[in-house]
Amino acid sequence: MPERAARLWRTLGAAFVVLVFVPPLLLLVAGSLTEPGLPPSPTPQLVPDPLSTTGYQRALDLGGLLRAAFNSVLVAVLAVPLSVLVASLAGFALARLTRRTAAVVVAASLVALMVPATALLVPRFAIFRFLGLTDTLVPLIAPALLGSSPLYVLVYYLAFRAVPTDLYDACQLADLSPLRTWWRVALPLVRPVTGALTALTFVLTWSNFLDPLIYVYDRDLFTLPLALRSLSLLDPTNFPVFLAGAVIATVPALVVFALAQRRFLRYDDRSEG
Q: Residue 70 and residue 80: Cα distance in Å, rounded?
């Protein structure tokens, strides 16, 4: 009975996601296939007449999306794994502290989460400028050295806290170092958490607009959000060019989300089995 209820809620959740997110995506794709240069249609069209891929060609040429996509991929490939590894290490270390010490660190992390991100822009910019790292991709990757967000560390802390203490004791009896215990025992047991945070970190890193806007000035270093901003400045008759760029920028995030969802479903099926 609980398994049937879980399947029902999962189906309802999937249906809700489809109803909320699929229609805007369909309109996005339909708009990107509209012929550029024509007056905007007064009503949305799911099947434009005529169909055209000219918007994609112009988006690649005018917006420099290929170079921007390479920069975004480079940032994501470096920042996402680094962020997840640092957050998992910090969460594991926090889980192995005494409850009183861990409570103090958790409280400090919650306070840090309450600080608006915009309040840190000026001091972070001053630090990177002093180090001569502005107009590079380094400021976009550097936050990963701190786990990107205290939230990630807290999520891992809760996940590692759920691992039976007897398992950690057995690792100590087997003379495993804390680092090997984290890598060989604890981290494999929280794979769903790692998958979820990896997908979340990738989406946030891929769509990050504010940091590149502040730190990057050279057009050759633009990431996809900045390149899309330049396309948004085109006149309304060329709006399909901007939508085509948006489709190109959205596809990788959708692919990562789909892969993560597939892993979650496989893990649930294995758990139920």
A: 15
Please give the structure tokens belonging to residue 260.
């993560």
Kindly state the tokens that stand for 103.
């409570």
Summarize pLDDT for 220-261 with one digit per residue, the tens: 999 999 988 888 877 777 888 888 899 998 899 888 888 877
DSSP letters for 123-145 = HHHHHHHHTT-TTSSHHHHGGGG
pLDDT digits (tens, 9 = 90+) for 152-171: 999 999 999 999 988 888 98
Share of the chain above pLDDT 70, in %: 90
**Rounded CA gap, 117 and 84, in Å?**
20
List alpha helices for the chain, DSSP H: 2-32, 54-63, 65-95, 99-114, 121-130, 138-141, 150-161, 165-173, 178-181, 187-189, 191-206, 210-215, 224-231, 239-272
Contact criterion met (CB below 8 Å) for 34 and 41: yes
Domains and CATH numbers, the chain: 22-63+234-272 (no CATH), 65-223 (1.10.3720.10)
Residues of the chain with pLDDT under 50: none
Q: Which two tokens stand for residue 2?
A: 């609980």
pLDDT of residue 5: 67
Instruction: Kindly state the tokens that stand for 240.
Output: 């399909």
User: Residue with structure tokens 């496989």?
Assistant: 266
The residue written with tokens 């012929």 in the block is: 35
Indicate the average pLDDT of the chain: 85
User: Do the Cβ atoms of 46 and 164 come closer than 8 Å?
Assistant: no
Q: Which two tokens stand for residue 83?
A: 């962020």
**Rg from Cα positions in the chain:** 23
Bridge partners (DSSP) of residue 188 are none
